[in-house]
């Protein structure tokens, strides 16, 4: 994991502290600091040996942190509509996939069938500038991530999804509560000052209910 800085500014400056820090530390994106903070706040959320799915993974900042967190015995699968520059570590698999495409589930299963100990989404839509539209698009992506976690997440596992606050945010958080024992809403230090984004973190996925006898 990364060291912590004492001079972490929150206001938006195009080439701000985190941008420079990411460059200095050889990180592909400043967003690496966000997942790093989440993993530090919830130290059992991604363990050594875990299988982790990273949705919206390009250019690979989250993946750089996650591959360290799972270690050599773990596995990290990263997908995005944009190609991800290959990783040298053999425990990382990447692919160009659109999570909203009809064949996404089949293509993901072909990459790695799971189950996943953690499903993480940093997906963000192309913004239109229209607040309601952007919130709805963001929630659609987060909703798809939750659907994947419901289908492929391991009992006891973790969920993390970026969502733009507003709109049906609370309904989404309630959905996460149905599947996870504990739910937290986190705004990492590295989030740009003006941004409406937060991360909904679900801890300890509930075991699927046992089938009811006829
Ligand atoms: C903020 S960036 C992710 C940054 C990444 N976590 C990192 O640390 O490098 C958001 C990503 O979501 C991806 N995305 C948006 N819609 C998507 C979709 N339908 N399927 C897959 N990825 C999507 C975008 O292409 C973009 O790369």
UniProtKB/TrEMBL annotation:
Q: Where in the cell is it found?
A: Cytoplasm
Tell me where it mainly resides. Answer: cytoplasm
What would be an example GO MF term here?
methyltransferase activity
Q: Which reaction does it catalyse?
A: uridine(2552) in 23S rRNA + S-adenosyl-L-methionine = 2'-O-methyluridine(2552) in 23S rRNA + S-adenosyl-L-homocysteine + H(+)
Q: What is the residue range of the signal peptide feature?
A: none
Domain Ribosomal RNA methyltransferase FtsJ span(s) in chain numbering? 28-205
**Pfam families referenced in this protein's UniProt entry, alphabetically:** FtsJ
Q: What residues does S-adenosyl-L-methionine bind to? A: 60, 62, 80, 98, 122
Known EC number: 2.1.1.166
| Key word Chloroplast present | no
Q: SUPFAM superfamilies, from UniProt?
A: S-adenosyl-L-methionine-dependent methyltransferases
Q: Where is the active site?
A: 162
An example GO BP is:
methylation
- What keywords would UniProt list here? Cytoplasm, Methyltransferase, rRNA processing, S-adenosyl-L-methionine, Transferase
| Record's function text | Specifically methylates the uridine in position 2552 of 23S rRNA at the 2'-O position of the ribose in the fully assembled 50S ribosomal subunit.
Which family is it part of? Answer: Belongs to the class I-like SAM-binding methyltransferase superfamily. RNA methyltransferase RlmE family.
UniProt-recorded name of the protein: Ribosomal RNA large subunit methyltransferase E
């Amino acid at each position: 994991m990364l060291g912590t800085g004492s001079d972490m500014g929150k206001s938006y400056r195009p080439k701000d502290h985190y941008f420079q820090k990411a460059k200095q530390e050889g990180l592909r994106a400043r967003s690496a600091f966000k997942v790093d903070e989440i993993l530090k706040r919830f130290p059992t959320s991604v363990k050594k040996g875990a299988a982790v799915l990273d949705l919206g993974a390009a250019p690979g900042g989250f993946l750089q942190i996650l591959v360290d967190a799972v270690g050599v015995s773990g596995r990290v699968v990263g997908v995005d509509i944009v190609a991800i520059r290959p990783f040298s570590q053999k425990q990382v698999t990447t692919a160009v996939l659109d999570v909203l495409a009809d064949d996404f589930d089949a293509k993901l299963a072909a990459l790695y069938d799971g189950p996943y100990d953690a499903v993480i989404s940093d997906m963000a839509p192309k913004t239109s500038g229209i607040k309601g539209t952007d919130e709805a698009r963001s929630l659609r992506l987060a909703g798809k991530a939750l659907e994947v976690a419901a289908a492929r997440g391991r009992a006891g596992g973790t969920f993390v999804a970026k969502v733009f606050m507003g709109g049906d945010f609370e309904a989404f958080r309630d959905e996460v509560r149905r599947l996870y024992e504990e739910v937290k809403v986190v705004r990492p230090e590295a989030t740009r000052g003006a941004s409406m984004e937060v991360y909904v973190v679900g801890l300890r996925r509930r075991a699927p209910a046992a089938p009811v006898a006829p």
